[in-house]
Amino acid sequence: MLEVIRLNSSKHPKPESLEFSYGTAGFRMLAKNLDSVVFRVGLLASLRSKALNGKTIGIMITASHNPPEDNGVKLVDPMGEMLDQNWEVHATALSNCNNVEELCNCLEQIISFFKIDLTTCSKIVIARDSRESGLKLLESTIDGLKSFNTEYQDFGLLTTPQLHYIVRCSNDISFGEASENGYYKKLSNSFNNIFHYENENENGKENSTKICVTIDAANGIGADKIVKLRSYLSEYVQLELVNDKFMEPQLLNVACGADFVKTNQKLPNGINSFNLNTLFCSFDGDADRIVFYYVDSDKVFKLLDGDKIATLFAFFFKKMLAFLELDVSIGIIQTAYANGSSTTYIEDNLQIPVIFTPTGVKHLHHKALDYDVGIYFEANGHGTVLFSQNFIKSVTNYQSNNIEKKRSINILKEIVNLINQTVGDAISDLLAVLVILNFFKFKPSDWDSNYKDLPNKLLKVIVKDRTIFKTTNAERSLVEPKFLQSKIDQLVKSYNKSRSFVRASGTENAVRVYAEAQDPKSCDELADKVSALVQEYS
Ligand code: 16G
Ligand code: ZN
Fold this sequence. Notes:
Elements: H1 2-9, E1 27-30, H2 35-51, E2 56-61, E3 70-76, H3 85-95, H4 100-113, E4 123-128, H5 134-147, E5 151-157, H6 160-171, H7 180-199, E6 211-216, H8 221-230, E7 237-242, H9 258-264, E8 280-283, E9 290-295, E10 301-304, H10 306-324, E11 330-334, H11 340-349, E12 354-356, H12 361-368, E13 373-377, E14 383-387, H13 389-396, H14 403-418, H15 426-440, H16 444-448, E15 456-461, E16 470-472, E17 477-480, H17 484-493, E18 499-504, E19 511-516, H18 520-535
Helix pairs in contact: 2-3, 2-5, 3-4, 7-14, 7-15, 17-18
């Protein structure tokens, strides 16, 4: 077997001067540098599958919201979750072997460390986003898979969450049908049923209020998937698409998409501001993030970001659980980027505990598992809700003769299937938001009225070595460089309701500075002053 690996790997040499790292969301960089990395990811994925007795592992080739010339790759574990963190170091080590000898040694170490039986079958499902470089990288990944005789199924172009869903179904048939159509069927069934329950009046007739939303698909693969999903949805929802040119990969994420809207706090290309108080949303390039927005009656752009989605979900579940008197725990997981007003609203108004974790979905996801209803969202729009077995049992066994209670319990049962519990999913989150807005008959401005964001600013500083910036307390305080945190604390003290923190990016060669304060001027000043402190390291 190692002979085949030797032969194949010589076709995928590592670029000499580059150092790779399996970061927050896998490997991500300029696509032209990734050939050796994806080949080796193919090798590692095969070993991961063998180590787990032939469970199906996922490989997703995507660089999410990054520019068109980038690409990336990440592994998905059997239940649809991110790769086990203990394996990340092996991914990094493999990717950095300088020659075939080192590569074979590294593989042998992994095989003996995990006591992997190479005769076990290995199975992989693989997909990619709409980037131009995707096909070539796919072929190189497959070279890696073939080196270990791995069985693989190529699902072509998918959103990242669809691939997570398919991995889960491949290992757990109770989750759904392991196909793209299976995904649409599962989501649309629940969505249509919930709309039916929500709109049915006392006489059993349905009110036909139509709910409309315009989706900016970032010219990414989400556009194609929305077109396919549409045919499964009831006539009560109208999904309009803009920035849907996924076949023109040079347009991907350019002046559009969730990251653009969140960072610039303005409408993307392709959406004009004349439709007041109607709902818009933006996906990112691989459709695992979503942010919403609207233009209010004063023609002001209003963002409904991940914090607003989390608080809408929390409001809904809190109401439902109270109405049904269900004794289950509920918690919200945020990162340091969550707006301070959202945290105050959740703790003080909704009276739900908030837990903070470092940035990156794997951290939030892990913590959300501690609750019966664990809601996690990053402010950038990446998140979902996890439900425990205890919650599912309580809902399934619930008995009541009260019509309203029966209706509520039916909605909860369906929502468990509507929300993609494997990972944050723009399509599934969109549908969940629509059923909640329809449930309360909320307009975007009603949703937005729960709290007002504190002015906030995110800046990027390029430094010589970002690895010297070490944090603690869920990335909210620096431990190194020494004395920098006390300087930041001094600055924060001089502004009302303010907060600022500094952390090294996990996806870019930069340090990020976040600041928020009571008014925009203070916020700008604070962000600039903290950035100036960080610039001393550039
Ligand atoms: C990745 C993460 C995202 C996080 C972002 C932070 C996943 C799937 N994606 O895109 O959750 O917000 O990195 O980027 O975990 P940064 O470290 O450059 O600020
Ligand atoms: Zn993404």
